[in-house]
Design goal:
The protein is of the alpha/beta class and about 250 residues long. About 45% of the residues lie in helices and about 15% in strands. The protein contains eight helices and seven strands; from the N terminus they run αβααβαααβββαββα. The protein has a five-stranded mixed sheet. Helix 4 packs across helix 6 and helix 4 crosses helix 7. It is globular and about 55 Å long.
């Protein structure tokens, strides 16, 4: 409900934004309670693309019964995400080059190594590389859009690992699989962002050591309200968000 309230302030048409949606933002202030009996839900642990820590998967799989309790039909499935990781890397690198090339030239010694790497990767790109990635992204969007003809929602992990110590800058391997770049360990959310479909991160449980695990709820294009409604229903079932860690100052 807090996210819905925030969207009611942010959403709506704006002539300064050519891709803004014209629907009234007031819809996000309506009650989120809804009947989900018969809703078609796809569950994917990895989109067929990436490794996930076993403790994350076991926690997520244990939460799926809440959706069946709501009357949803849950089955394993996911869209075709082949090539998505490469598309993301190209477009992200291009963005870094556009945003940080001047800083790299003048302040390299003050920049983080991952920012330097990503910017330099972008500077190596050709116009053809970027154009091809944009075209492939359009095809990916179409594949995901067609997937949502048969399913109302897609569930998957938010992150592939549990929260890790602050001293660890990024995860180097998962289940013995090497993460070749600092982005690879978070493909579970970056690949969804690439499709521009609405996604919500929901607390769904805790590891045996008490670390939080998040479930990602993805909906069809422009289905933000649907995603919020399912998230609200899940929240009422689990009450996981009511748990607060002890904090010592």
């Amino acid at each position: 409900s807090d996210v819905a309230l925030l969207l009611s302030v942010m959403a709506g048409a704006d002539p300064l934004d050519p891709i803004s949606i014209t629907e009234s933002p007031e819809r996000y202030r309506e009650p989120l309670a809804r009947d989900f009996k018969g809703a078609r839900i796809a569950w994917s642990p990895d989109l067929g693309q990436f490794p996930v820590a076993p403790v994350v998967l076991s926690t997520l799989e244990g939460s799926l019964t809440h959706f069946t309790d709501l009357g949803c039909n849950v089955e394993p499935a996911h869209p075709d995400f082949s090539g998505a990781a490469d598309i993301f890397q190209v477009l992200r690198s291009g963005g870094f080059a556009a945003g940080h090339a001047q800083e790299l030239e003048h302040y390299r010694d003050q920049m983080k190594d991952t920012v330097i790497w990503n910017t330099e990767q972008g500077l190596k790109l050709t116009a053809l590389d970027v154009s091809r990635a944009q075209a492939q992204r359009a095809v990916l969007f179409q594949r995901v859009h067609e997937f949502f003809v048969n399913y109302d929602f897609l569930l998957l992990p938010v992150t592939q690992v549990l929260p890790f110590p602050i001293e660890t800058d990024w995860v180097r391997d998962i289940n013995g699989v090497e993460m070749k770049t600092y982005i690879d360990w978070m493909m579970s959310c970056s690949l969804i962002s690439l499709t521009e479909h609405p996604a919500l991160s929901m607390p769904c449980g805790f590891s045996p050591d008490g670390l939080p695990v998040g479930l990602q709820i993805v909906g069809p294009a422009r289905g933000e309200l649907d995603v919020l409604q399912l998230g609200f229903a899940f929240e009422q079932c689990t009450r996981t968000a009511d748990r607060h860690p002890d904090i010592t100052l």
